[in-house]
Amino acid sequence: MIKRIWLLLCGLMLGQRCWKWWQVWRFFRKPTPQSQREPATTLVSLLQPILSGDPHLSTCLRANLDAPSSYAREWLWLIDDNDAVAQQLCHELQAEYANQTIRIISLPAPAERVNPKTFKLIAGLAQAQGQIICVLDDDTSLPAYGLEACLPWLDQAGVGLAFGLPYYRSFDNAWSSLVALFVNSNSLLTYVPYIQVSEPFTINGMFYALRRDVLEQLDGFNGLEHILADDFAVAQRVKQAGLGLQQTSMRHAIRTTVTNAQRYRSLIQRWFIFPRESLLRHLNRRERSLLFCLVIVPTLFPLLLAVVTVVRPSQRQRWFSAIYTLLGLLNFIQIDQHYLAKSTPRRYWLLVPFLELLIPVQLIQALLAPQRIVWRGHVMDVEKGGEFRFVQRRDAQ
């Protein structure tokens, strides 16, 4: 009986690996709808909460300013009063790019239990003048004409929010490379197949866009300050208003420097703790079941497969392990080359099977770990339901 269950599980996991790749292929064949707006007369406000600390900050900000777009744009850079490094950098870039509309908004520290990012978004929205509001993280770079691939979806019936797909370009050292490989090998194969069987229940908070009239209908970001997972909070507010979340084919690059093993572990643990304490506690039974079947089980399976292959070796088991691993590697290479701008250097390709064994261990560890995380230099305790409290605030720069 156990043998039959194992064979069934192996067949299902092999099938889902093929099915996910096929769904990604189908997704990128769908055309972007025609824009209902004249881009040259449509002002887009891009709200960017900014914190210094990463050596790529200047590169990311410049990449967005240099990225061509037919839309009229204004940049609202939301900076801490005490972040002297960010203040200096942003004022220098403002002077250098005098032909662009850049507004620097300096803000005090948020109150206790107030999400620093949401606090900044509320302040930025109050001064934004665009008909479309975009939220853009400071480590995220939009591609050339990326807005053109995303914003037309906002005028489709029932769509309240449109968002993109992230991938990483950070391969400066071993730890940054592991993070980049994790995202690049999982992002498309996680988000895209899910939306083929269900409406999205959350978004990628690195970049998303809403019409101003929709945001006003939703009372903006007000009332979301006490929730740590701000992207999930925004997504739930849009859905509760009866509007949809639109996953678009626009892919945006991220550069984040991870300097050592401790920071790598902390980052991965934060990514797993966020959904454990906020997202999973608010999903209905169907959404949790789909997340379990499409994400959690496939994530844990490579480790289970390796253990069974070692403990109960057989020629058939070894052949299956080799085929399953090789198929995963080929899927990753094809996706990286065709959809992620060949962002992963070839010398890292063979680390993907190793990462498939490492990530399940970290997932299990995060499920058992306490709720304390480090986020942008802040040490926080995450509470059940998604609220939080500061343990230690980020030092001034």
Automatic annotation (TrEMBL):
Which InterPro entries does the entry mention? Ceramide_glucosylTrfase, Nucleotide-diphossugar_trans
How is this protein positioned relative to the membrane? Multi-pass membrane protein
| Entry annotated with the keyword Methyltransferase | no
The biological process GO terms on file are: glucosylceramide biosynthetic process
Q: Which Pfam families match?
A: Glyco_transf_21
Keywords of the record, alphabetical order, are: Glycosyltransferase, Membrane, Transferase, Transmembrane, Transmembrane helix
This protein's pathway reads: Lipid metabolism; sphingolipid metabolism; Sphingolipid metabolism
Chief location category: membrane
Where does the chain cross the membrane? 289-311, 318-335, 347-368
Q: Single GO molecular-function term?
A: ceramide glucosyltransferase activity
Location of the protein in the cell: Membrane
**Which SUPFAM superfamilies does the entry link to?**
Nucleotide-diphospho-sugar transferases
Q: Does the record carry Transmembrane helix as a key word?
A: yes
Output a single Gene Ontology CC term carried by this record: membrane
Q: What is this protein called?
A: Glycosyltransferase 2-like domain-containing protein
